[in-house]
Amino acid sequence: MISTEGLVKRFGRTRALDGLDLTVRTGEVHGFLGPNGAGKTTTIRILLGMTRADGGTARVLDGDPWSDATELHRRLAYVPGDVTLWPNLSGGEAIDLLGRMRGGVDKKRKAELLERFDLDPRKKARAYSKGNRQKVALVAAFASDVELLLLDEPTSGLDPLMEEVFRDVVQEISDRDGRTVLLSSHILSEVEALCDRVTIIRAGRAVESGTLNELRHLTRTSIQAELVGPMNGLAQLSGVHDLKEIDGHVQFDVDTDEINPVLRRLTEIGVRSLVSQPPSLEELFLRLYEPEAVK
Amino acid sequence: MTSLAGTGGLVRLILRRDRIVLPLWIVLLTAISVSYVKEYGDLFPTPDSRVKYASNAGFITLYGELSGSSLGEFVTWRLGFVPVMVGLISLLTVIRHTRVEEETGRRELLGATVVGRHAQLAAALITVLGANLVLAVLLALGMHSQDLPLAGSIAIGILYAGTGWFFAALGAVAAQLTASAGTARGIAIGVLGGAYVLRAAGDTSAHTDGPLAWLSYLSPIGWAQQIHPYAQNRWWLAVALLAATVALIGAAVALAVRRDVGAGILPDRLGPADGKLGSPLALAWRLHRGLLAAWTVGFALLGLLFGGVAEGVGDMMRDDPGIQEMFQRMGGAAGLIDSFLAGVMTLVGLIASAYAVQATLRMRVEESSGRAEPVLATATSRWQWAASHLVFSLLGPALALLAAGVAEGLAYGAAIGDVSGQVPRLVGAALAQLPAVWVLAAIAIAIFGLFPRASMVSWAGPAVCILIGLVSAGVSTAGWIRDLSPFTHLPSLPGGAVSAGPFVALLAIALVVAFAGLIGLRRRDLPA
Q1: B415 Cα to chain A: minimum distance (Å)
Q2: H/E element, A7
Q3: Does A100 touch chain B (CB under 8 A)?
Q4: B386 lies in the same domain as B332
Q5: From A82, A83, A96, residue closest to B274, measured CB to CB
Q6: When comparing pLDDT for B76 and B205, which is higher?
Q7: CB contact under 8 A, B371 and A121
Q8: Cα torsion at B334, B337, B339, B340 (round to 10°)?
Q9: Do A243 and A151 lie in a common domain?
Q10: CA of A124 to nearest chain B CA: how many angstroms apart?
């Protein structure tokens, strides 16, 4: 559905994208994560044919996003993270305009979505709040009959209730209609709830890609233990990080893959008490987002 | 007075934001006004020549009636349109620093700091009323420095400032009425236009001893004009203007306390729930129609005015044996008026090119506001998107020029009793400007397509051409400089000889340059 290889984009001296690989399979909801300025929006703009890549290849729906842009746009819909609308057009006019230019609006679907997102389409765009402008773009995108949706931080400005509606709708179009979604997001609960696979990018490069289960293996378990004997050899074990000892209490993080040998060593020393904290994706993301992670 | 807390800081903010525009219009309007004293003193040295020049019906519509034949009165009369511009600038500046601030949400940001409820309005008014006062002082000093009487010079300063004050306060009221700055501007400019029309109708009626002379006294522009600087210096009219200003400011404050920040007194109307727009062209029509209507009406009015004064200008010039001799060689009285009309057409063409550039740059506005992106993410190609806008930047000026030609033909034709002959002649002359207008539009397209961040440089096109036109009319200018302007290459119409060569050449240049811009647009990043 989408594949890029070694995508490069330079803006003056900065390299916004530095060899990005991204694969989105047909029918999946693919999470696209990364810190601000990592290159998510640039990637989506290249996939839309708005921006031209300086190097590498990109394919969208078996076409070239740059030269086949107009044809491809009939088959995809896009929601930007910051929607600006024509101030003197009503929300309904903007939805119909974008839908018609894409190839047609499903009236029934539009009415249903307006109802679910609780949006008054008669208001002029200048009277909408940020969240309501976002809803206009979401309704326009979800009401079109397309194979692929490119959503660039689409829920910014939505309240938790609408966030919930958004999740339901994405789940529906994915499960029921088999549509493919590329979802760029900062909201981990949203990604956990919706995405089959995720790609994490940093400084213009993909640092991790896989299913959430695969990524969970990359997380670390946090362990606090009170030991009977001295903690000999613990620091040398692979997968142990940030080891600290205070009065016979040790505290460290361990890579989830390496947890067995570490536990074996602990029992050899003798454990009086042990607390372990389950791996959390949040920690993983925070770790991958940090600048050192790439090195 | 906690409701005014923070006003001083806001005044400084406005002065910082307008640090170039504000001094620029004050100095420019003063300089132009003062320069008229010498210029018109030289052109019309005798009271008789002044009275004769000013008694033309077209000029009376435009500038009002002459109060007396002294140089000061004559110059004040000839400057009759400048106070209207002062009023326009004043109301626009007030709305810019009140309603626009609210519409963009900046007022909220500032309002959450220690800034009182009326501080924004007070700061905008203080700045604009102050700017008008500075203008009045500079103008009085400037006029007096040209050996005009001091009292009259102060009076003309007050004439300008009084008009500015009134319309600044009117802008403050309009800013309270609607949530949209565009509508507020529309309301205020509408009142300004109405005041001007009342004044014009009243003065025209007075000139012909008609029954409608009192209309002038309904118009604040009329009041200002009736101050009659250098004649009676009727100060009580200045006091009346000041009182009206205070009343309007009071009304604005009263309205302001009855509404929420961001909202207007008039409710925002709801739009349709379902849209009919479905194509790039339909969208472009929605985005351009207001501009198109405004320019077309403006051009028609311009045509009426110039067509109306043409014959009088001919009369006036014919009285001067020197000019008469010169124009006799060029083809007699008909040649004289034709050369005036041709000059007017060039001016109209230059203004039309400003419209063409403005309409072309709408694409840049759409791009940098982020509104082009969702459109281009649909099955709309960049060619289609650009074409939908270019329909208006190329054909819009054509429609405006057509309106100017028809109106000028009607007005001049009615004056000399030859409507059926003059309309097609002047429509042809107006439309003949198009190739030059399109060259400047094409340059704007090229800059937008190839160097989008420099899009504003496109305004240099009309600006340079206007400058070349102005300079070469008075001073002898090197041929190659004059040749830079596409307008130089057009035949002098009506009256001149026409050949296809320049038209074909200009159209070819426009086509090539525009095409280069469109290719650039197709190949570049968007937004860039």
Answers
A1: 43
A2: strand A2-11
A3: yes
A4: yes
A5: A96
A6: B76
A7: no
A8: 180
A9: no
A10: 6
For B8-55, how does the pLDDT look when each residue is reduced to its tens digit (9 = 90+)? 989 999 999 999 889 999 998 999 899 889 888 888 899 988 888 887
Residues 148-167 of A with CB under 8 A from B: none
pTM across the whole model: 0.78
Q: CA B89 to CA A141: how far, in whole Å? A: 43
The full length of chain A comes to 295
In whole angstroms, give the CA distance from residue B33 to residue B35: 5
Contact B423, B406 (CB under 8 A): yes
The model's pLDDT over B294-351, given as tens digits with 9 standing for 90+, comes to 889 889 988 888 887 787 766 666 666 665 665 555 444 567 788 788 888 988 999 9
Q: Please give the residue range of the domain that contains residue A28.
A: 2-211
Burial of B157 per CB tally in 10 Å (0-12, 13-18, 19+): buried
Residue A201, both tokens: 């990018």
Indicate the Cα dihedral angle A123, A127, A130, A136, nearest 10°.
20
The neighbour count for residue B120, using CB atoms within 10 Å, is 27
- Scanning B369-418, the segments in alpha helix (DSSP H) are 372-376, 382-416
Going through B289-354 in order, the beta strands assigned E by DSSP cover none
Range of the domain at B224: 2-34+81-256
Q: Please tell me the total count of domains within chain B.
A: 2
pLDDT tens track for A212-240: 888 877 778 888 888 888 877 788 888 88
Question: Does the interface ipTM go beyond 0.85?
Answer: no
Say if residue A25 is in the same domain as residue A103.
yes
**B127/B196: higher pLDDT:** B127
**DSSP code per residue over A209-272:** EEEHHHHHTTSEEEEEEEESS--TTTTTSTTEEEEEEETTEEEEEEEGGGHHHHHHHHHHH-EE
- CA–chain centroid gap for A147, Å, is 19
Q: Of B270, B371, B378, which is closest to A102 when you measure between CB atoms?
A: B378
Contacts of A127 in chain B (CB under 8 A): 179, 268
